[in-house]
Write a structure and sequence with these properties.
Blueprint: H1 26-33, E1 39-42, E2 46-50, E3 57-61, H2 64-77, E4 87-91
Parallel strand pairs: 1-3
Antiparallel strand pairs: 2-3, 2-4
The structure holds zinc ion (ZN) (2 copies).
């Protein structure tokens, strides 16, 4: 099988805005950016971030639409115990994620 459709995994990951290194995945960038994050899942450029008191959580998505949908869902259902609706969409390629 010499498939030419093997490029899907070779998404270009930009140099980390925080440490300047080249992480292997968006997940690597997210974990570098929020090192004390208790809960980071998924992989992708767009992050639905929750800063509610229960603890910072991040869900990574491949498209901005997916991340937006995810935020709409947690906005509606609340993300956990003490939800105060601090949910944000972060673009890892642009934002330094100072949140
Ligand atoms: Zn880094
Ligand atoms: Zn919340």
């Amino acid at each position: 099988m010499h498939s030419t459709a093997q490029q899907t995994k070779c998404l270009k990951i930009p140099r980390c805005l925080r440490c300047g290194r080249q992480h292997r995945s968006w997940l690597g960038i997210a974990k570098c950016r929020w090192p004390r994050n208790e809960w980071i899942v998924g992989d992708g450029q767009y992050v639905s971030l929750s800063l509610c008191p229960r603890g910072l959580t991040a869900m990574l998505h491949e498209t901005q639409d997916d991340a937006q949908t995810s935020i709409c869902i947690i906005d509606r259902t609340a993300c956990g115990g003490q939800c105060i609706r601090m949910h944000y969409l972060i673009d890892l390629a642009r934002s330094r994620g100072e949140a």
